């Protein structure tokens, strides 16, 4: 018959093993410090996007795009920064007649990173400053890549997400 000390020790190990296994699993899936830094840099694309559309600063918006990037808006696909700029210059958020601010609820932002490539998803809620009404909602799914030390959009697909409470 096992001793009481042995039974107590076995019980402690049995209780501790799942906790240790979970801690190991959590630490292996949690981003490392360098990955967190890269994710932060990728998130700056979303921040700059909103600043550019709110201020109607097309030059600032174009700093987010790789030279040969692709943008897909519904049935329209354009390639290269000049073509992207031409489409964005006609987009509602950049029209001077619209007094809108652009924002994203934090819980609607997702980013991934793997080496020099990553993904970014965020929603743009364009709100009329004068009325407080949401005028336009756009979802942005982007492939991003670090180019010469800066994260840039290489491909973007716009969508029309549904707002839910």
Can you offer a commentary on this structure?
There is one protein chain. Helices cover 38% and strands 35% of the residues. By secondary structure, it is α+β, with helices and mostly antiparallel strands. It folds into 2 domains: 1-30; 33-159, Nuclear Transport Factor 2, Chain: A. Strand 1 and strand 2 form a beta hairpin.
Quick rundown:
It is built from four helices and seven strands, in the order αααββαβββββ. It is an alpha+beta fold.
β-strand percent reads 35-45%
The largest pleated sheet is described as:
7 strands, mixed
CA-CA gap between termini: 61 Å
Instruction: Name the CATH architecture of the largest domain.
Output: Roll
Q: What is the overall shape?
A: globular
User: Into how many domains do the coordinates divide?
Assistant: 2
Question: What is the fold-level CATH name, i.e. the topology of the largest domain?
Answer: Nuclear Transport Factor 2, Chain: A
What is the alpha-carbon Rg in Å?
23 Å
The portion of residues assigned to helices is 25-40%
Which residue ranges are poorly predicted, with pLDDT under 50 across at least 5 consecutive positions?
Answer: 4-27
Q: What would you call the structural class? A: alpha+beta
Mean pLDDT: 85
Order of helices and strands: HHHEEHEEEEE
CATH class of the largest domain: Alpha Beta
The number of E-state strands comes to 7
Discrete helix count: 4
Give the topology, please.
Blueprint: H1 4-29, H2 33-55, H3 58-62, E1 65-73, E2 76-79, H4 81-89, E3 100-103, E4 110-114, E5 117-128, E6 134-147, E7 150-159
């Amino acid at each position: 018959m096992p001793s009481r000390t042995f039974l107590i020790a076995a019980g402690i190990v049995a209780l501790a093993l799942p906790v240790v296994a979970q801690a190991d699993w959590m630490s292996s899936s949690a981003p490392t410090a360098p990955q967190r830094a890269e994710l932060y840099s990728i998130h700056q694309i979303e921040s700059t996007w909103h600043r550019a559309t709110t201020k109607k600063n097309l030059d600032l918006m174009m700093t987010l795009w790789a030279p040969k990037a692709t943008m897909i808006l519904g049935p329209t696909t354009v390639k290269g920064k000049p073509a992207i700029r031409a489409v964005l210059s006609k987009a509602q958020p950049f029209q001077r007649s619209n007094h809108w601010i652009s924002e994203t609820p934090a819980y609607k932002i997702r980013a991934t990173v793997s080496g020099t490539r990553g993904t970014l998803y965020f929603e743009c809620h364009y709100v009329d400053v004068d009325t407080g009404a949401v005028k336009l909602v756009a979802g942005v799914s982007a492939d991003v890549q670090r180019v010469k030390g800066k994260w840039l959009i290489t491909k973007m697909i716009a969508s029309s997400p549904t707002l839910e409470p």
